[in-house]
Amino acid sequence: MTFTSLTRRLLVWFVLVGLLPLVLLGYLTLRYNEQSLRVSTLQNIEQLADKKAQQIKGYIVERIADARLIARSTVTKDAIAQLSHSYQSSHPGTPEYRQADARYRSYFARYTDEATMFYDVFLLNLQGDIVYSQKHESDFATNLLAGPYRDSGLAEAFRESSMTLESVASDFEYYQPSKAMAAFVAAPVIREGKLLGVIAFQLYGTEIYQVAADPIGMGETGETVLAKWVDQQHVMIITPLKGKFESTLQPVELGKIPNPMRRALSGIRGNGIETDYRNQQVISAWRYLPELRWGMVVKMDADEAFASLHQQRVFSLTALLLAMLFAAVAAFYFGRKLVVPLQELASGAEDVAQGNLARRVNEQGADEIGLLGRAFNHMAENLQALYRTLEDRVERRTQELNITNERLREEIVEHERMDKAVRLENNFRKEMINSLPGIFYMLDTSGRFLIWNRNLESVLHCSSEEIARSHPLEFFAGTDRVLIEENIRKGFEVGETFVEAVLVARNGTKTPYFFTGRRIDRNGEPVLVGLGMDIAERKQEEQELRVASIAFETHEAIMITGPDDRIMRVNKAFERITGYGADEVIGHTPHLLSSGKHDPTFYEEMWQQITGTGQWEGEIWDRRKNGEIYPKWLTVTTVRDADKRVSHYVGVFSDISQRKLAEEEIYSLAYYDTLTKLPNRRLLQDRFGLALAASERSGSYGVVLFLDLDKFKTLNDTLGHGYGDLLLIEVAARIKSCVREMDTVARMGGDEFVVLIEEVSSDAEEASQKVAHIAEKIRSALAQPYFLDGHEQHSSPSIGVCLYRGRAVSVESLLKHADMAMYQAKESGRNTVCFFDPVMQQAVEGRAALEADLRRAVSLQQLHMYYQIQLDNEHRPLGAEALLRWIHPVRGMVSPAQFIPLAEESMLIIEIGRWVLESACRQLKLWEQHERTCDLTIAVNVSAQQFAMPDFVGQVAAVLRKHRVDPARLKLELTESVVLDDVQGTVEIMHALKGLGVGLSMDDFGTGYSSLSYLKLLPLDQLKIDQSFVRDITSDPNDAILVQTIIDMARNFRLNVIAEGVETEAQLAFLKEHGCMAYQGYLFSKPVPLEEFEALLGGL
Amino acid sequence: MKNLFRGKANLVVVISVAVAVLFAALLYSQSDRFKPGIKIGVLHSLSGTMAMSEAPLVDALRLAVEEANQSGGVNGAQIEMIVADCRSDAVYCAQQAEKLITLDHVQALFGCWTSDCRKAVKLVVEKHHHLLFYPVQYEGLEESPDIIYTGAVPNQQIIPAVMWAMQNKRKRFYLLGSDYVFPHTANLIARDILRINGGSVLAERYLPLGEKNFAAVASEIARLKPDVVLNTLNGDSNNHFFSALHETGITAENVPVISTSIAEVELAAMGASMPAGNYAVWSYFQSIDSAENKAFVARFKKRFGQDRVLDDPMEASYIGVNMWVNAVREAGTTDLSLVKTLLSQQSIPAPEGIVSVDFSNNHLWKTVRIGKARTDGQFDVVWQFGRAVRPAPFPYYHSRMEWNVMLKSGIQQPGAVVQP
Q: How far apart are CA A1000 and CA A1013, in angstroms?
């Protein structure tokens, strides 16, 4: 039995001690590896999914942008207008439609060739008819709202695009006419603020399939799956599946779709280890693509991703099994080796026990078992010897005992007598000990209580029997126990000892005691005697002191002064905040810390309160050792002794400068401009309101100046915002230097500043003079050169000035007035000062109203074209100059001199100019159909802004193409100002216009500064002599000579000449005589509406 | 084996080791509880004229935060919501934003209603490159790398509303709005759309926020007989406007009103005075019939009371928190630049349907719905787009540059108050 149990135990211990840690270690390593592999694989698949999602999104967004661009091209606009028109007026089969169709076919072919993205191009009219298709599939000429394809992606794109007026993309769906998957992008086509229709493009899915099929980074089992909703219960997989090819493009029930795709399709984004459609564990990431409403899952088999982990597992398991086998074999072998000799020993012992004392065992071997064998044999021998001597001794002992018995009886009598004396002595000692204060004890070397007094019993709550049985250490706990043990030992070794320890009574009461111990000799044995004193009260006091000193070291500074106000003690926080060390301040008064910011009365009041109430609390500014002034929150408390006399003052304070800064930051953010640190609009309005109220009380005038830097925007655009900011900071500083400290300089935003000056004078005349002086000072200060960032920079302000007195006019109006005056200053050439004048206000308001009306004039059809006839020498009509008239329902006829400059300023001239061009061409087309009018030209005035438009030539070309008129019959009249701004650019544009075949005429010739060199450069067809010269040719010889010169010059340059403003026969005769070729003026007709003009032609 | 555990001493050792292991495990499992919370700031007006509309948004945010905390918080920490009362004052609100960012160290801000407020807070948020979620439909023409706009832009509200009316043969419009940025810009766009499609504007009127007297407006509508009124009034003026219409005898049948700025919450607060049959345009209505939405409504009512209602801006607030939580969880950190990058790729199944952040402009793909008012303060959805609409903060028909020029020249600034 013993044999097997010993072997088994060895086996178990081997396994436990040797293998268990191994198994645990192996398990933990595997687990850690698995987790980190899992995290990195998931991250990898996430990145892949994001990349692919971004590629697909990017592809769709680019196509949407393409559609938007193409929809804005003039050709597209023309195409959709013409084709819609042809489609509606005649069926697609007719020649008229085919002609229009053919015109654009080659143009749109560029978007469908091999290199581009689109499969087909469609033009859709407002009703949803497909009026044009590049591929002419069965969808052509059907209606998308009611026809057979009303549920297609194309129809969807059409509806959304026309409803939101945005460029949009549809889903990828099976498109029946093309018998393929297709998506559509569509963009609304808008011309002159009217919706003409929609242009749509059919997309291949190739690009997206390529993104999906891209295997980079996905391993062998990687796969990208794309799917879309069919209806609420069905889903369609769009990409071919590696493991299940046949399910692609078939509706599948939602329930059969694996989790990742289901989540992706419901808009959730995420990643994880999931089961896919083949029931394989996969690492996957799922994404929703809003552009297509598709779900995307990027995944990879877990087996592949975790292949290395699998190998590692097999390896670890094998190693573990081998180790276990080895341990078992070793345990068995050692067990055997140990057990066989033991078994022999056991049987030997059994024999000896039975009385066979001659039995011996094998005693070979140097190990413990050999030793055991030898000892066993030795024992057996001794046993034999012992047995022999024992019998002799018993006999001898019996005789000796009889003699001793007699002697003992005599001794007993003597003993009884002495005992009585000892008992008396003992009682006396006991009484003495009991009368000692505190505890008395006596211990022997083993720690047993020999003698003790009653106090000990009562303190320990023990009976004397219990104490006699106890060891002193039982009455101490924890470290005290060790301490006492040591001290008892020390007492015996050294002879004397003291110790403090907590005594734990039987009932659990704990009392700190101070013990003494002294070694004395008692009957030749050393014993320890001593006393114990209760020190509970003293301990309590010590504890309180310790708490107080810890509390003293808080994060708040503490300073304790005596009644004479001299500092006695400070803590660490005090040193940190003030910068003074304790030794530097102790003995000084707190006056050392004062900043000098508070006047003596402040301190007086503070002390008054301290003496009165015993306490003071408040914010106070002090100075640190490094000179820095800072705010702190101080509490002073008086401490009085038992006699109610002041013994100490305690000052507690914390540094509140951080909090102060934060408060100020928030305040300044709201009321100050961050760049220049000047007050902002809000603060200005507050102050202005107060200023008005003050002015009402005092009756004196104040003034507000509105400043704006000339051409600041150009500077900002060319040199960058950073540079502009530097300039603004400098400007702010210069303005401030020109005014008094009490005046407000504010920044309104951008490059606009406002200066508010109060209390200028109570006399209006004097006030304006003073103000003019200040404004001029500011103007000249700002016009000085700036040296910023190593550059010299010039700038100048325009300043508007507005005086105020009292509250008659509101802050807003005053600012507006100053603003108006500033604009007036800008208009009168910049770098000037201008005072507000009520007439100015009326003019500005009147102009604003006019501008608002003008904005609506085009759409409300208030603009009209008047025509003034142009004739040749034989009085045959050559054509007309088209002149713009605005007939306003209330204002009546508004003079072009009044509204044209306004239109030019507000850029409305571009829209109006386009309208004029359109009208002129439309008219030319109409005239083309009548013999009498088919050769007439129309001259149209072109403004400088129109001319400067980036695509002016393209616009003219588009209009000509649209109306299909002979370009030669359109004449554009340019003024000299057009040319003067940018000669090189103008010449290029004029050549381009010339290339279109359009005629060019120089209007108002002679009034500007045109030089001959320009004239040589410009590809003109005609010069127009200005009416101001014509008016006086018969009376003013200078004008006569000038006109003569112009005509001669034109002849030399081979230009023809027309004179305008011909009013009398005399003027006509003069011009004719000097070689002029064409005329225009009231002599023949004033500018008239179309009907009258046509009537005039009939009359000629 | 018995031998192993022989003796009392062995048993004590085994038991104490087991207890120590259990205790360590318990400590470890509870360690998350002691992590400091992640703070977010809420900027809404709980007092002043906007409180009626804005206060419920705080509840929607709270619901989202509580749900996120129940599902484990973010990155092992609980979300703490610090609510600042903006007192219906944009400048004060910006100061609060500054405080939340610099002193409270919040990780994201959720808030603002009016465009004034947003523009003020935008400056602060952009100064610190911080993060704001803005939950209300607005006039567009804005884009910021530091703001996620979860409400609709014009091509998701105003433009489809006008187009829908015109498709229903209503071409003569009467434009009415409160006098501030949003109505002015909305009407500017509406006018453009009408011009593009051949409609017309009979009158365009603005009244101050909080105006009560609508007699003149109502009588002008009665006189002009427009096909439809496009109403961009904000706040309780709506109440007075509809009363005035009623008194003048104008009904939803002959002149329907399409409103852009009143939803269920305002109707409930006003006592449902919007006559049935008028229309509102939103992405979300409480009555949407989907499992997602029904669960959302049930959760909200369970938390805040059965009599409470939900509306579009509340749902947009709720979406904002959820998106933020998803992004922070995915980032595994609160690093703002990483969170913002992930935010621009988020999509979630929201009560209104799937919403996704457009990666190019930080606005949401949203569904467009038109609701017809019922007598009980709820709406029946009468029309909706089949799919979420791409956000286009700068409408198509002008280039981005042209819009910027118009913005600079101040076209959308509130002008003088116009009364008929």
A: 18
Cα separation, A878 vs A1068, whole angstroms = 16
From the list A1041, A976, A1037, the residue with the least C-alpha distance to A1007 is: A976
**B390–A168: do the CB atoms touch at under 8 Å?**
yes
Q: How far is CA A740 from CA A642, A709, A760, A904, in A?
A: 62, 22, 11, 42
**In the prediction, which pLDDT does B391 show?**
93
Record: contact B192-A9, CB cut-off 8 A: no
Q: Give the 3-state DSSP-derived string for A903-964, with helices as H, strands as E and coil as C.
A: HHHCCHHHHHHHHHHHHHHHHHHHHHCCCCCCCCEEEEEECHHHHHCCCHHHHHHHHHHHHC
C-beta atoms of A666 and B155 within 8 A: no
Helix (H, G, I), strand (E, B) or coil at A565: coil
**Rounded Cα gap, residues A813 and A821, in angstroms:** 12
Q: What is the pLDDT of residue B158?
A: 92
B287 vs B378: CA distance, rounded Å: 7
- Cβ–Cβ < 8 Å for A712, A751: yes
What tokens were used for A691?
């200023």
Helix axes A838-857, A896-905, angle to 10 degrees: 80
Q: Supply the ipTM of this predicted assembly.
A: 0.85
Spatial distance between the Cα atoms of B285 and B263, rounded to a whole number of angstroms:
8
Q: Please report which confidence band the pLDDT of residue B412 belongs to, taking 50, 70 and 90 as the band edges.
A: very low
Per-window interface: B 101-120 vs A, CB < 8 A: 102-103
User: Does B349 contact chain A (CB < 8 Å)?
Assistant: yes
A interface with B, Cβ–Cβ < 8 A, is: 5, 9, 12, 50, 53-54, 57, 61, 68, 156, 160, 162-168, 171, 187-188, 190, 193-195, 266-269, 287-288, 290-291, 293, 662, 665-666, 669-670, 682, 859
Which run of H or of E encompasses A877? strand A877-888
State the CB neighbour count (10 A cutoff) for residue B189. 24
Rg (CA), chain A: 57
- List phi, psi (to 5°) of A1085: -170, 150
- pLDDT band for B316, please (50, 70, 90 cuts): very high
Q: Which residues of chain B lie closer than 8 angstroms to A166, CB-CB? A: 155, 159, 389-390, 392, 395-396
Start-to-end Cα distance in chain B:
101
Alpha carbons B309 and B314: distance in angstroms, whole number: 10
CA torsion A314-A315-A317-A322 (nearest 10°) is 140
Beta bridge partners of A296: A226, A287
User: Nearest Cα to B137, choosing from B122, B152, B116?
Assistant: B152
Closest CA to A1080 of A1027, A1039, A1034: A1027
- The pLDDT mean for chain A works out to 84
A267·B160 Cβ contact <8 A: no
* Residue A806, CA distances (Å) to A703, A708, B73 in order: 11, 26, 61
The side-by-side arrangement of strands in the sheet containing A701-709 is A744-749, A752-761, A701-709, A797-804, A833-835
- Which chain B residue shows the shortest CA-CA distance from A682? B91
pTM: 0.52
Which residues fall within 8 angstroms of residue A1035, CB to CB, at 6 or more apart?
none
Give B403's contacts (C-beta < 8 A, 6+ positions apart). B141, B394, B395
Write down the pLDDT at residue A206: 76
Min CA distance, A426 vs chain B (Å)? 46
Gap between the Cα atoms of B258 and B159, Å rounded? 12
Using an 8 Å CB-CB cutoff, list chain A residues near B354: 266-267, 288, 290, 293
